[in-house]
Structure formats: C-alpha cells, structure tokens
Design goal:
heterodimer, A: mainly alpha, 8 helices, 63% helix, B: alpha/beta, seven-stranded antiparallel β-sheet, 23 strands, 23% strand
C-alpha cells in the first residue's frame, strides 16, 4: 500500500511525470503484485551486480535480495522502509532518465556502470541511502549465508579452544 | 469442609519455601534439599529445563532469519528490554518483554527481568569476583549507608564452598583487594591484554590487570561431572543456554542437583503476592501465590521462607506483605524498606587501537571475555574528590575486516579475502554507587499490576559522586591507555539509565541494628526471624564486583544457619 500511494504521489508531481519511467505505466503497473515482482527483479539484478556469480555463487544465486527485503520489512522502522522504497523508485527513474530505458532493459554493462557511478556517490542522497543500505544488507547476507559460512569463511559453532597468542607467521 | 481445609493445608505444607529460582534461589533450593528439607521453589515464570528448553542453542548464525537482529516491531513494543546488550534474536525468549509487567519510573530505570525457571542465571555475564574487607568496611569507613554486619572472614569459607560447586575459572593473582578463591584453571589473557598488564605493572604500583574470573568449567572436577556438566567449549553463546553446562546456571546445576534429592517441589507460573504473617505465632507461616495465568490464589505453608525473587521483586513482595503487626511491609518497623537502593554505574566506556603485535591474533573464543582491573581508587584511604571507586573491564580483540568499497568481482574477492584489522582495545567502568534514602523502591497502592499487586515504583538516579567518578575513570584510563601506546582513544558516555547494568541492589539491607537495617548478619529479618532475604535486595552497599557470587555465598551461609536454628527449635 505504501508504495502504491507513493507512485500516486509521484504522478501528481509535474517533474515526476516528466521523469517517470515508461515501464511503470505499461500494463504491469495496474497491479501492486506486478510492481512488487518488478522491484524484486530489480533488486535481484542489483544483488547480482554487487556480488556476481564467478566460480563461486553470487548474490542472486544466494537470493540475497530476498534477505535484504526481509530485513527491510521486518527490522526497519516505517520511515526507513519508506525511504528505501522511495530510493528504489528514484533509482529506477534515474536509470530511465540517463539511459532512456527501464533498468531491467539495460545491458549488463549499462547496469554495471550505473551502479558503479552510484557506488562512487554520484547520485541524490535518497538514491545513495537506498543503495548503501541495500549493499550493506547484501554484504551482511553474503557473509552470514550458509554457503559462505560453511565453505569459505568457516563459522565454528564449537571452537573448543582459545589461543591469545596465535601467530600469523606460518 | 474443615477436613478438606486441613487436608489442603497439609498438602500445601513444606519445610521451606524459596521464592524465586534464579542464581540465589537455586542455591537455597540446593542447600535446603540436600539437608533433607522438603522444599517448595516458587517461580513466577515458565519452566526452562536444562538443554531441552534451549531452543536456539545449537543454531548456526544463518538459521536466524534476521541474523540476530531484533525485529522492529519487537523493539518498538519493548524499548526497555531492547536496550539490553544481551537481548538478541537468539536469546530474546529468555527476557521479560516490557508489556508483560508494568512499573513506574519516577526517574528513568531500565528494569531487565528474566521470569522463568533459572531466572537471569541463564543470562548473566558470569563474572565472579569476591569482595574483600575493603568493600565490606566501605560504608563504615566512608560514612554512608550503614556498616555491614559481616566481614570477609565471615563469608570467605562460603565463597570457597560455592566456588567449588559452581566452577570458577581464575588465576591466583595475590591481590588483596580481590581475594583469590577456589579456582579451576584460569583463561589466558591475549598478547595485547598481557602487554597492557605489563605496562600497568611498570607505570603503577597498585593497578592490576588480571584475567577475568568467570563461572566456566575450564577443566571440570568430579563434582561438576556429577552435576551432568562438562567442559566449556568456548562457544561464547551462553545467553542461549549451554548444552554442555559449560557455565553455571540454576538450570544446569543447582536445580537438577536439588531435584535429585527427591525433596524439591518446583512450581512455575507462581507469582508470590505476599508472605503470610501469623499475629499469634509472631512469625511468617506461608506465602500467598497467584497463578500467573488463572490468577487464582493459593496459600503454601512452611517453617522457613527464603525470598530470592530478585532485588526489586523481593522489595515488592515484602512491602506488599502487610498485617496489623506490619502495616508497612513485613519486617519494616523502621520504615527503611525499599530505601537505600543502588546499582552499578556502567555508563562510561573507552576504546582505542594498538598498532603493535601485528603478527599475532587470537584463535578460538575466550569465555572469560578478557581482563579485569580491580578497584584501585580510594582503596587504602580516601584520595580523590569522590567516594569509593570503580573496577574496569578491559579486553583486546582483532577482527577480520573486509574492504567493502567497490562492487562486482572486485568487491566479492575482497569479501572472500579479509585481512586482520588493527587491535581494538576497550574498557567499561563498573562504578560503586552510594545507596541513599531517596533512592528507593516503593509501591503505588492506587495502581495494580496484572496479578493484583501494587505497581512497583522505582526512583533512582545518578548523582554528583557518580559523575566525578566517571570523569576520573576517563582521565585515568586515558592516561593508562596512552602510556601503554594505545592510540585513537575515544571516551564514550552511553548515557544509559540505571538498570541496564542489571546490578540493582538493596532496599532490604543487612546491618547490626534493627533501627537502621532490615536484615541481620544471617540475612534474617530482624523482626520476623523465619524470613530470610539473600538476593540483591539484602545488599548494604554495592562495591564494584559483579554481585552474583556474593549472593550465592550469602545464600548458602544463611541456609546453613537457618537449618541449625530450626534444629535448635529457634524458628
């Protein structure tokens, strides 16, 4: 509901109309469910760009965007949640504005360049807040995923030892 | 009908009643049942069975859907408990939520509670240091509160007694202000903590860093194996409950031990409303209990009653135990009950970095959590512009850190190949606060809680002595840190309210004179001899040490005395 209201608000603002991404007005927009699907897709693509699949699993394979969405929904207050979804919308608008295509229609390299620019802090504070809170959650989800904790950076539930003089010169 | 009443009275009669099953109640239960007394332990919360009721204990971090973060709705609904450092996704089921019990704060007080079998013994920080005569003689020397009716020599054999059973890891450090005890092998300090220890030795005469003494089985003795506990395996996930019984709790130790005697009757969901005083017999005869869910009242009877409900609840129960003999609360002839309440000042912290020892780190985890600096201010004599002093925790750690800049394969590779960050050192102050008449627990007779008891009202605040002490802590620690070569020193005032230290004490203080105290030297109410208080409520002053070990020693000592008195026909 929050996001639908938001879209309506943006529509009412003249500058919003000018910038509003065409994808948001196609036949998908009529349903909130589809909007959520699109946002999830955008976040999934972003997760993939932030932590790509290489010879090891990446952000999308590990569904880190779903972890991020869960954390936003369950652990952030109303204002932070609103800021996150507004930031995501503005991010989509930015893509549209700069490259004249919805984010999901951009090429991999266009998407990557856009994220790199934002990562270098070239964007509005709303977008930066959204992007870095998302990126931090992706990193948190990655480092605390079963995959990483059991195969790369091993978490020991039961160390059974303590050495206060562990030498790093091995 | 009379027959039925007699029958129910017989059924509900025990030799001893213990109110509360936390760290001190568990000890009372163990001691009474071992001495052959049929003992009823009343617990207001639910039962928590060792291991079986530790639902999160073996979970991996990724099995917690919010990776230990407490969901927003929970935090919003429960702001007080959410401020507690140990309230996390993996441990929050062992804490009382704000909405479960209302109380009034005349001044901000974060009341952290654990209503379940085992109480907060499941959640304690497990730091176990003895008091010395520098602590017991404090009020008399410095002219506050009243003189303690006991000295170290009275408690020392009981410290021995409980330490052997609890299992305390520590080194014999030979420091007179922090007496040595019956220790299992101590945990080591790490290389930077040892560096700090050496620097203190070089730069100061009377400042020591020791490995923190803690209730962990570093190397279990047969007595611990008999309890069903095994070696601590350095998980440091203690707040979930330990499947090995690696740390001491009522659940892993005293309660199962008491149950084995066949003399223990444990009754959860039992909120004690009051203690019943018999005007003819001139003593307490039992307790009135409200079933926490049905709200039905039942009476239980016994010759001896131990009140171990936790400091504030013990005050509430006693103040609510009114009769024509005691219109202001049981044993409260002098009107001091609830007053001279105090706590530990944990507001001040200091952090820094150390650039040395880059070729070393730690491996595994330290259950003792690092070092402990015993009080070094005003020990032998008054030497500062504030009364008493502070102990300080100190620890050093090094984390694997990852460069989080960038995105894509570059970021990924950085996340998978972290490097060792600089050594981080940190300390927090544990300051003695002065019990004052205006610092008090009282009852609001006009407002009742869910169980029909007058609402607890708490009035407690920091005072100038506390602020002067904090200023001194910052100065001294900064100097100690600088001379040890630590850099980037940061002083932090958490501004936390009293209560978050979870060391609230007093209100039913011990003392020699019935005019100025509530309990005698055996924790017996001066004017109602078969009622004893051995939890935090009995404390005359707070000193700086974590208090649980002292509660346990006082409890074992008081039970021993109570049973002897009972045998002599004095109770």
């Amino acid at each position: 509901m929050e996001r639908r209201t938001l879209i309506k608000k943006l529509i009412l603002v003249p500058v919003g109309i000018a910038l509003f991404p065409s994808c948001l007005f196609d036949n998908n927009i009529s349903s909130e469910e589809n909007e959520e699907v699109r946002q999830e897709k955008v976040l999934g693509e972003m997760a993939k760009l932030i932590i790509p699949k290489t010879d090891t699993k990446g952000g999308l394979d590990l569904e880190l965007h779903l972890f991020a969405i869960k954390m936003i929904k369950d652990c952030r207050d109303q204002e932070e949640q609103k800021a996150f979804w507004t930031g995501l919308l503005e991010f989509e608008i930015l893509a549209e504005q700069k490259l004249h295509k919805p984010f999901l229609s951009l090429t991999k390299s266009e998407q990557g360049e856009l994220l790199a620019e934002i990562n270098a802090k070239a964007a509005s504070s709303e977008i930066l807040n959204f992007f870095f809170s998302f990126k931090n959650l992706i990193i948190k989800g990655y480092l605390n995923s079963e995959y990483i904790m059991t195969s790369h950076r091993i978490y020991e539930l039961i160390p059974g030892r303590y050495d206060g003089y562990f030498s790093l010169n091995t | 009908m009379p027959y039925l009443n007699i029958k129910s009275k017989t059924q509900n009669t025990y030799d001893a009643i213990v109110i509360g099953s936390g760290i001190s109640g568990g000890w009372a239960a163990k001691e009474f049942t071992e001495k052959g007394l049929k003992t009823l332990v009343l617990e207001r919360g639910r039962d928590v069975k060792h291991i079986a009721d530790y639902p999160t204990t073996n979970k991996m971090p990724y099995e917690f859907e919010h990776r230990f973060e407490v969901p927003f709705k929970m935090r919003k609904k429960n702001p007080i408990v959410s401020r507690c450092y140990a309230f996390r996704e993996d441990s929050m089921h062992f804490f009382v939520k704000d909405s479960e019990q209302a109380y009034q704060q005349e001044k901000p007080f974060d009341w952290i509670r654990g209503y379940q079998v085992g109480g907060k013994s499941l959640l304690w920080a497990r730091q176990t240091q003895r008091w010395s005569n520098f602590d017991f003689e404090g009020p008399a020397r410095d002219g506050f509160a009243v003189d303690w009716p006991i000295r170290y020599e009275d408690l020392s054999p009981w410290y021995n007694y409980v330490e052997k059973f609890v299992g305390v890891a520590g080194h014999r450090d030979g420091i007179k202000e922090l007496p040595d005890g019956e220790f299992l092998p101590g945990y080591p300090l790490n290389i930077v903590e040892d560096h700090f220890k050496e620097q203190l030795k070089i730069n100061y005469k009377n400042r020591h860093l020791i490995s923190a003494r803690c209730a962990h089985l570093s190397k279990p003795e047969p007595i611990h194996i008999q309890q069903g506990r095994t070696q601590c395996l350095n998980r440091t996930l203690c707040f979930r409950g330990c499947p090995f019984g690696g740390y001491f709790s009522s659940n892993s130790s005293t309660l199962p031990w008491a149950a084995r005697t066949g003399n223990l009757h444990l009754k959860p969901f039992s909120v004690v409303d009051s203690i019943i005083y018999d005007e003819q017999l001139n003593k307490a005869v039992g307790v009135r209990v409200i079933d926490s869910s049905t709200k039905e009242a039942t009476e239980y009877y016994a010759k001896i009653i131990f009140v171990n409900a936790s400091a504030i609840n013990t005050n509430q129960i006693l103040l609510n135990s009114v009769s024509s003999r005691f219109p202001n609360g049981l044993g409260n002839d002098n009107g001091l009950m609830g007053k001279y309440f105090a706590f530990h000042n944990y507001r001040a912290r200091i952090t820094a970095e150390f650039e040395g020892h880059q070729n070393f780190t730690t491996d595994g985890r330290n259950p003792a959590s690092g070092g402990y600096i015993p009080r070094f201010r005003n020990v032998e004599k008054q030497e500062t512009n504030f009364l008493r002093g502070y102990a300080a925790a100190f620890s050093a750690r090094r984390n694997l850190v990852e460069d989080r800049s960038g995105i894509g394969t570059e970021l990924k590779s950085r996340l998978l190949n972290p490097h060792w960050g600089r050594w981080q050192v940190g300390s927090h102050m544990m300051g003695e606060t002065i019990p004052k008449e205006e610092s008090k627990i009282s009852l609001d007779q006009n407002t009742k809680d869910d169980w029909g008891m007058p609402l607890v009202t708490i009035s407690l605040d920091y005072d100038n002595n506390d602020f002067k002490m904090m200023a001194d802590y910052y100065d001294q620690m900064e100097e100690m840190f600088s001379s040890a070569g630590f850099t980037n020193i940061k002083k932090i005032d958490t501004k936390q309210a009293p209560g978050l230290d979870i060391h609230e004490m007093g209100g039913v203080r011990m003392g020699s004179d019935p005019k100025t105290s509530l309990l005698n030297k055996f924790n017996q109410l001066h004017s109602c001899k078969n009622v004893f208080v051995t939890d935090g409520a009995c404390m005359t002053s707070t000193s700086t040490q974590n208090p649980s070990l002292t509660y346990m020693a006082l409890t074992a000592r008081a039970v021993d005395y109570a049973v002897e008195e009972l045998k002599r026909g004095e109770l």
